[in-house]
Structure formats: structure tokens, C-alpha cells
Amino acid sequence: MRTYNTLSLIVDSELPIPINIQLKEQIKFLIKMEYVLPGDYLPTVNQLADQLTINRNTINWVYTQLKEEGFLLMQKGRRTQIRDSQQVRSLVQKKDLDDIVKTSIETAIEKGFTFDEFVASTFMHHHFFIENPHSARFLFIECKEHDHIFYSEEIKKHTGAHITELFIEDMRDIEEDVLDVKEINGIITTLNHADEVKAHFSRINLPIYTIGATLSPIDLMNIAKLKEGTKVAFICLGDKGGEWMANRVEEAGIQHIVSIAGGISEKRNLGEIIHSVDYIYASEAVYEKLNHLAPEKTSLLPLKLEKTSERILENLK
Fold first, then answer.
1. Is 235 helix (H, G, I), strand (E, B) or coil?
2. Which of 64, 142, 223, 244 is the least buried, fewest Cβ under 10 Å from its Cβ?
3. What are the tens digits of pLDDT across the range 88-119?
4. Is 175 exposed, middle or buried (0-12, 13-18, 19+ CB in 10 A)?
5. Across the strands, what pairs with 211?
6. Reduced to 3 states, what is the DSSP secondary structure of residue 38?
7. Domain limits of the chain?
8. Is 19-92's fold the same as 137-214+307-314's?
9. What is the assigned CATH class of domain 137-214+307-314?
10. Domain 19-92, CATH class in plain words
11. What is the model's pTM?
């Protein structure tokens, strides 16, 4: 059993992957490769935040998510530990894959190829020769103001299908008979726009599946701890997305704060919002930008797919 005050982690704001996801996957990699073992104590939130010079809320979110997934043990008054769990054991069993990748990269470099060439070749090989051409194909419809990136990634994760994304703002300008129904197995949309999508494609003989999201109880509990009258902004890609986040918080019975909803695209109002509030809660799609603009105020408020929606998508495999 060892105690770590630092970890070999890096963050790169230039990558298209959110920093919280970068850290989460790196810690899982350390667990998988057995660089850290069950029972080992990880750095405190403050230690890791100072090491990486990032917001403490980001570290706390990463630790909390890994706890929910069964990889970490968090107890009040004690350091975070690696759990001795089935999830950890299953992850370690996948270590052989990384050995294969490492050997392949080393062989390619020895033969004079660059790492970028290796990655590009791997991607194209997968695209043309491995990816299942018989995978289901779905059209996903959502608006530009909600966190459509989250929904799209969840659909891909749970179905393994090919996903074509259509914004509802663009859908309104096309006729339903333009859609080639032979090319897709169904349409997926969210509760935000289910009625409009069903009405628009009412004459097409395709199933339309509706999914929804919620907020983590842990995140809601943290918001509930804020002092009465605290000014809190909820920011997404657009105003409607921010309003959705604020409404979920209010529905959870949290009504002692002053909520302001906004969108990252509303640049004129965004500066005023940032200046006027005490805290900012941002969806994953906009977190990096807001954390850059106001790191001392910004916290991540990620969406979670509802359990019923997970089952709907799992059944579409």
C-alpha cells in the first residue's frame, strides 16, 4: 500500500478531448497497467490540482466519476484509494491490449514511420477493413443549443451504430421525402424535440426513439450546499441548453439560489453573466472555454443519460 503525492499525468488544452476526460482515462490507464494498485492512496484533490495547475472542481469530478464506476474508494476524512473491485480486476485484464499497441508502435518507428503516420494508418485500416459495414445506421436530431455532442457520443457508445447528426434548425428546412429511409434504421431524438420530430416525419415508416438526460445526484448535492442567494450561472451551447440545466436543478428542489441561464454562443451577454455571478456550472461541451475565461468560478456539470434511455439504446444494438 503506497501513498502518492503526485501522479504521472498531463493535460493538453489543445486536444479536442475535455480535460476531465483526459485525466479520467489516464488514471484508468495507470490502474490498468498496475502502476497504481488496489489499496494505494492517490494525491488529494488539492495536491493534484496544484500539480496540474487546473481547477480543483475538475479533479473532484474525475475522482467522483471513477468512484461511481467502481474504481476508487472515497471516504470522508481519508485519502482517495484504488478499490479492490471487479471493475479494477476487469480493467487490469485488458493490459495485454496495451502491450500489443506498444509493440506495434515501436515496430513502426523502428521501420522509419512517424507516430502520426501510424495513427493515420490504424484509423484508415479500421475504417475500410474492420468497421462492421452491417452496423445499424441512425439519424440523430437535436438542436444546436443543447449539448448534442454528449447525446451523440452516448448513442455511439451504447449502440455501436453509425450516427448521422441533423440539427433541428436544419430539419425544418427539408422535406421529409428527401430522407432516404433505405439508408437508416431509425431516428433518435431527445425529449426536448420529440413532438416536433415525430410531426415532421409522420409520413415516413421509420421508428423514432426518444432519449433523455438528467444530472448526477452528487452534482445536485454540491449545488444544494451553496449559500442562500448565491448567484449561479448555468451555461451550455445556447440559452435553451442553459435553461434546461437550470430547470433540472430547480426540479430537484434547489430553489434557494439565484439562477441565470446562458449560452456560450451568446458572446455579448456571456461576459456580463460571468462578471455578475458567484459560480458557473458548465456542460461538457463548453467547460474548457469557460474554465479558460473564469477558472476561479467555473465547475463542470455533465449530463447523465437516464437509465431508461440507456436501455432503449442498448436494445438498438
1. strand
2. 64
3. 999 998 888 888 888 999 999 999 999 888 88
4. exposed
5. 190
6. coil
7. 19-92, 95-130, 137-214+307-314, 217-301
8. no
9. alpha beta
10. mainly alpha
11. 0.68
